[in-house]
Design goal:
Helix content is 60%, strand content 0%. It is globular, with a radius of gyration of 20 Å. It has 7 helices and no strands. The protein has 172 residues and is mostly helical.
């Protein structure tokens, strides 16, 4: 799965299948439970989103999204041999492939125009990350580069200030 871009549905399913095969090898060709594979995939997806400092939905919601997409994927595969030449089935597969190119969007803010976002503060996308997220939801030309040290220092100072303020309040 790419570390320098947000994952698409296709990326997530490829990583899911790769992880499943690795675990199967480790378990001497026994299929690993879905929840074990899903947990590894979800953790990786969340790490990538955290890397860009974009707030995302809860772990449980990411799990629901992955489970739903995986179920759709498996339902398409079940009747493949008997229906692979059928026109409507081919259309479903084509539609599924088109959908798989979309961003596996776990961002907590789903506002269409991010600049006009009315979400609560904890769900808002930092101004510095807005262009990147809009690009990832669309043409996907941008990538995550190296760590922005100046911005990291600002974030650390802000976090330390918040922790100090909470400590003072708890002493009262």
């Amino acid at each position: 799965m790419p570390d320098n871009q947000r994952a698409t549905y296709a990326d997530v399913m490829k990583f899911y299948n790769l992880t499943k095969q690795r675990l199967k090898y480790e378990l001497n060709n026994k299929d690993p439970p879905h929840h074990n594979v899903a947990e590894i995939v979800i953790t990786k997806v969340e790490q990538i989103w955290d890397k860009a400092s974009i707030p995302h939905v809860s772990h449980r919601r990411v799990q629901e999204m992955l489970n739903k997409y995986h179920k759709t994927f498996m339902n398409l595969l079940k009747p493949y041999e008997s229906r692979k030449d059928s026109g409507p089935y081919q259309e479903k597969i084509s539609q599924f492939k088109d959908e798989s190119k979309k961003l596996f969007d776990i961002c907590s803010c789903k506002c269409f125009f991010i600049s006009q976002c009315q979400c609560e503060k904890s769900r808002k996308i930092p101004a510095i990350e807005r262009d990147f997220l809009e690009d990832q939801r669309g043409p996907r030309g941008m990538i995550i580069a190296k760590v922005d040290e100046a911005e990291s220092i600002k974030l650390q100072k802000r976090y330390i200030g918040r922790v100090d303020a909470e400590a003072e309040v708890s002493q009262i």
